[in-house]
Amino acid sequence: MLHSPERKAALQAERFALRYKDNAESSVTMSIKVAFAVNPDGSVLEHFGFAEQFAIYEFGESHPVASEVRHSSAFCRRPDKELNLQTVADLLADCQAVICAVIGPCARQELAAADVEAFEFDGTVESAIQTIARQPFLVRRAQ
Question: Which of 57, 127, 128, 142 could form a disulfide with 28 if both were Cys (CB 3.0 to 4.6 A apart)?
């Protein structure tokens, strides 16, 4: 079944919410670090394998905070894709999630091995941030 871009984004946000739902039994809060695969000016979500940079945001009790930009090899454009994919996965290993326009199964699997979940969103980085920030799950409780 095909979904509109808005419905697809809503389903992805719901999936993201289920993964990072609050644990009501704990009072210790942690922020969630999310990497956005972005185009060179940082405004539009990029295909994961073509991204030359990732904007890192922290979502916590207050509004999302941009913490840094990490540069990548755009591994899909390189001859040794597997080695470069591992390098990008290592670059993002401290994040809980990656948001991108499109991601292939090999890249998704490599990130999952590092306990980083990949989500696809259509549109701008700002619209993805706003969609995620509206979710009630953003403060993850330590166990």
Answer: 142
Over residues 35-78, the pLDDT tens digits come to 999 998 888 999 999 999 999 999 877 788 899 999 988 777 77
Integer-rounded Cα radius of gyration of the chain: 15
Distance (Å, rounded) from C-alpha 141 to C-alpha 81? 36
Tell me what percent of the residues of the chain surpass a pLDDT of 70: 69
Q: Cα separations (Å) of 56 from 24, 26, 84, 114, 139?
A: 27, 26, 20, 17, 17
Domains and CATH numbers, the chain: 5-141 (3.30.420.130)
99: exposed, middle or buried (Cβ count in 10 Å: 0-12, 13-18, 19+): buried
∠ CA 3-49-40, rounded to 5° = 95
pTM score of the predicted model:
0.76
Closest listed residue to residue 71, CA positions, set 40, 43, 113: 40
Tokens of 117: 């979940």
